[in-house]
Every structure is written in structure tokens, then in C-alpha cells.
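call fold target=OPT superfamily oligopeptide transporter
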Amino acid sequence: MAGDENTASVPDPDGHPQTGITSGFEPQITKQVSDIKQGPKIRDEEHALDHEKGADGITRAGSESDSSYDVRKEDRFGEADVVTDARDIVTHVLHVDDDPSLSPWTFRSLFLGAGLAIFSAVLQTIYYFKPQAIYVSIVFLTVIAYVLGEALALIPRIGPVGRFLNPFPFNSKEHVFIVVMASAGATSTVAIEILAAQRMYYGMTPSPGAAVFMVIASQLLGYGIAGLLRGILVQPSKMLWPINIPVNSLMETLHRDKKETSQRIKVFLIVFAAMFFYEIIPEWIFPLLQGLSIFCLANQNSLVFTNLFGGSSGNEGLGFLSICFDWQYIASLGSPLWMPLYTLTNSLIGYLLCIVLFMGLYYGNIWESQNFPFLSQLLFDQTSNSTNWVEYNLTAILTPENEINSTAVAEAGVPYLTGTYIAYLITTNMGITAAIVHMLLWNYDDVKEGWSFLTPRNLKKVFTPSFWLFWRNSEDPEVHKQRVLADKGMDPHYKLMMQNGYKEVPQWWYSIVLLASFVIGLGTLYGIQSTLPWWGYIISNIFAAIFILFFGAQMGITGFQFNQQPILQMLAGYMHPGKPLANMYFTVFGFNGVQQGQWLLRDLKLAQLAHLSPRSTFTAQMLGTIIGAIFDYVMMETIVQNQLDILLSVNGSNIWSGQNVQQYNTLAVAWSMAKDMFSVGARYEWVTISYLIGFVVPLPFWLIYRYTKIRFFEYINLSIILWYMGWLFVGINASIMTYFAFGFFAQLYLRRYHPAWFVKWNYLVSAALDGGTQVIVFILSFAVFGGSGAANDFPIWAGNNGGVPNNRYTDYCMFNPAAAS
């Protein structure tokens, strides 16, 4: 396994990976530049366990077993080494120091946290109904929170009221508390999918109270499970959660001594302001810049060119060799500047294979692909052909109880899916099971503690009366502190928090959260007419717990988040045949629980790197979750009511799209007919068989590496490659090539050849780009894109292709007439 006997003792001078699977970064590189004036310095791969002096003259830490060990001596901020692993990142890009006297417990932090939780919930729901999946950037929330916090700090501290509203200058702990609370409010999108689907496709409107409680329950389920696993998935150094580094870098820049950070703040503000004004151009004035395709401009009469090179509009094409100038779409699933090189490389391989796979399937007419759109996630009728696409009439095959009528299906025929969507399902399903096997083969030591409770010794404890008095069984704080400080694999920032006396959250707090979510969820299932039986609900909870362990570890190490939704909908299809609503609710608690758990873990790491006390973090996340659930629901109702026709259409618009709800409902209905669609012998049997193939796929590469030690095979992660082989099945794809260009420039060129620039500027600039973009996109969503009513289009000109009516694409690629039929 990587990190064990396979770890080479001599660093590779070419920078090839040695333990890239376990770190997510290129491992040790011999040539490291410590300081331009000092010349090169070679550091021990265990982070200099022998005493040494850094560039700042501070004597660094010796052995961690030394009683005089001080975690702060691990601070290597600003040293211009080539960062090679997760521990390097958190000690070179961030300071390992803390001021325990700073308090987050103020009216200001609670007031702004609640306000931004509402704001982020509304914004994330808007983004959910966009043609490209976009997540509210924590950087964006960080910028807004800082501006508002500093504004409230101007309140005169006169009298009891003044001191209550402004007890002291706005500090970093308040800032992190606000951001964590706001982030928790922005993560309910999967839970509102089912509510939107019921409105759009089933004519059902659950009561607001039951709907909100259902959302809260699905959120807290993931929080409870992930909280219990935080010792495995958050606290170790190896669990970097690279998505957080730009945010933590920005936090430090804003709150440290202004003499030290003045240059960094200036650069941040310049980039932020530039993106704020620039994004108006590609978003509203000149949308051709969202996906500039030289090939489509040269040939506007070829559907082949549209399918291959087009991609600036929803479900248009694969966007191959298109150039994107819109950062919103370039960084739609995360800025490429922080994505580890290991992840970028595997995803690029998958992306290129996706293009070959999709074009081959469609033009080979596999599964009668040419009778349907090139890209779509809808169900189609068997009467469709290349010039007339007919959507499957879902209403005609449902009973009054919203279950599948097998007699009606026999008359109407089994629905069809597009060939590219089937390819996405096959590669994703293979990737899901391959990811589990990959983690067991390469990262067993990282995840094995997740099921340590299953040992005979621990199971025996379950039957002792004292076990059930869990509130008495918390680990002694001093014992916990000493255990953490003695663990060489523990994150230095977490060690610092324990060294400074922060109290950890008792495990039983998260146990209570998990129990409460289970009870609330079970109650709402019957009140909301979900058709999901109690035993199906319990099974969905079990799968959430299993998946959080494996896919949480994968995201923490590589920065890559896997979509587990298809496998859960398949399981639900076979357990609850003929019940699409039951399928969707099974997925809400299974998949939404996993996703929420991952977001909880991400924010726990964010707070850990910023040294916010665990109990403050717990409070912020619980409050943000409840507030966000309410406003997610309110905004979803508003958008569905105002944009219903566009949300139900095949292509949507370049502003609004129902693709997420369409995909969710499509899979629920399709898997409810699993016997006729996906079982062995059925039309799409490979969708199911692919799960079994996925278990085998990682084995050859692992065996070859184990017996040859050829590093190429260690660097390949087939679970990531397989997922990206279906990446382009929906949405706006014109930004992908630009995404990889930025990513490789930062992670390959800057990090290796200009490490000083990389350490000082890469993550800060990433934060500024995200922040400026998302602030203006939020404003434009309401001002001109119809977020609260009618849209206000920019005047017609060549840069928006004549206003882009329904029979055109923004990038001038040929429009398929069947899409308008």
C-alpha cells in the first residue's frame, strides 16, 4: 500500500510521484529552493525532525516526543520550498500560530452568521437552477463577511448597548464563525431536488412545515455521521481538503498585522475588483466569450462541429478546443488553481477519453443514439427520431398514487435514454465501486479506523449497560491532548489547538444530532407522502455512513468529489420497484446525507486551519443548517413558480435550466422500471453490470505497481478517470480546456519552477478571482437575469448572437432543428 513498504526512501529528482495516491500532491522532490538568498536547502521528508534553522532564523522543532515540543515551531510560512505534500501546504502557505484570547462569541458574529446563512441559501438555490452546476464559493462568503464585520466594528463602543454590539475589533475567530455558519446554510440543494420534482412532474406540493423538516433531517444525518468520523477524515495532516487553502490564506491575509500583509491585501483587492467589473462582459454584454469556438465560427452548418466543438449553451456539445473567458464557468466546480496536480492529471485523461467515448457512441448509433439529442438527461418516447424528439409521457404511466402502472408502460413502451447519458451512468457506476476498491488498496491505513468499532472487543461493549451512558464515556481532555500531540500524522494546526487548551466536541453531541435527524426524517416520510417504507429509510442511512467514510477520505486527500447519486437510485429501484417517489426520497437521505457529510468535513477542516474552537464550529454549523433549510425551500418555490416553462424544456436557456431536477426525476423513473431497462438482458444492461466491473478495474494497476514499482501505475487513479469519462453529459462544456490550462500552469509550472510565487500568491489570487466573480454574478442574477421576475436582456448584437433566440447557440454553432420541435 502507498505510504507503507512502497514508499521509496530516496526522493525522485524529477518530481515523479512516490506517494501521490495518499497525499494528492506530487511527493518529495530533492531540489527544493529554501530561499533565493540562502540557496538550496534539502529538508528531511519527515519535516526536519532534527533541529534546524529556517530562513527566518527560528530554530525548528525537534522530535515530537520531546517534552519541550512546541507546535508553533512547525511554522514555515513563506519559505520558498517546492511544496510536496499536505503537511507542506499547511505549514508553508499558512501560519502555525494562534491567539486563544480571541473570541467568536459576539452578537455581531451571530447576527452576520444568520444573515449570510439566509443569503447563501438563496444564492445556492439560484445556482442550482443554472445550466451549469455552480456552488457558492466560501471565498465569496469570506469577502462579504469581512466587509460587513468591519462595518459593524465602526459602531461606537459607548455604554452597554455599544459594547454589546461592538465589544472589540472584528477578529479572525468571529470571521470564521460567520463563514462556517453561512456555508452550512448553502448546502441543501440535493434535498430540495425532490421538492422541486414533486412540483414540476407530479403535481404535488408538500406542506411547507413537513418540507423544511425533511430538508433539516437530511442535512443533520450527514452532519452526525461525519462528525463521528472527524478524527479520521479531518484531524490528520493527510486529510488536506485542498478546497479550503485559498479561504484560509485569505483569512490570514485579512487579519494579520497590516504591515505584514499590506502587499497581499493590495493584490487581492486589485484582482477582486478587476474580476467584479470584468465578469459583466462575458455574463451579460458579450456571452460569446463564455465559449469561443474557432471551429464553429469557421463552419456554422455542421451538427458534427456542434456536437464536438460547441458547448457555450446548455446541452449543446462537448466544447472541445473551445476557449472560455468567463471565470464563473471555468471555476464552476472549484478553482483549478488549488486542484492538486495528481487530480488534474487523472481528470484530464478522463476528459479526453470522454470525448472519444461520446462521439463513438453517438455516431456509431449505439442504443439508437441518433434518434435522440446528443446530450440530454430526459426520458424519450420510442417514436423519437433524428428530426423529431418526443419526450416520454410520464403522466400517462403513473397511477393516482404516483406509482408506475405496468400495464400503461406495456402500452407506451419502455422509455429511451440518450447514448451519452447511458455512457455517463456506466462510467460513473464503474467509478463508484472502483473508488471503494482503490481506497482499500492504496489508502487502507487512512480509512480502516472507520470500522474499528466492528472488532469483537468493541462489539462486546455494546452489550454492557455502561456503553449506553454515552455522555459519561467521553475521553478525558488531557488524555486526548497528549494523544494528539504524540501523533506524528496529526495536523499541526489541530495539535496547536489542543496545545492551547481548546475543548473538543464530545462524541455524544454528534450522536444526538444523528439520532435526532433519524427520528425527524422518519416522521416526515409519512407526513409528506413519500411512499418510502421505514426499512428503506434505514438502509439509506446505512449507505450514507459507508459512503461518507470512503468518499470523504477521497475528497479530503485529492480534492475530488464523487457523485454517488446513480448507485443509490439503482439500489432504490430494485428495493422499491415501480415507486419513483420512494426512489427519490431514498436518494435524498442516502446521497444528500453523504454530500452534507462531505461539506461538514470540509468546513471542520476550514475551522481547524483557522483555529476556531471545535465547540464554536459545532454551534455555527447547526444554526446555519436550520436557517438555510428554511430559505432554500422559500427560494425554490419562487424560482419554480416564475420559471416553470424553461425548467421543463429540453435545453433550458443560458440563464435558467431544470437539468438537475430533470436528471433526478429521469433516474428515479428509469430505475423504478429497472427490470425492463437495466437488468441483465434488458436494453441498458451494462449500466448494472458496470458496478461489478468497477470492483475489478483498479486491481491490474495496483498489482503491476506492487511487483514492478513503476510509478506511472501509482499515479493513475481509475476511479477519477472513470468519473470524468462521463463528465460532459450535460451542461455548458466550453470552459473545460481553459480550466485545465489554468490548473496545469499553477500546479505544474508555478509550483515546481517558481515555488516562491506559488506559495505567496496562488491561493490568494484564486480567492480573489472566485470572490469578485460571485459577487457580480449574484447582483446580475437579480438585476438582469430574472432571479426575482422578468429578465432584462442586453441589446442585440454580434457578441450575443442576435440575442440568442431559441433556434441559435451563443457560439454560432449550428442549431439542431429537432431541439425546437
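return ok
Residues 580-610 form the longest helix (31 residues). The chain has a mean pLDDT of 81.
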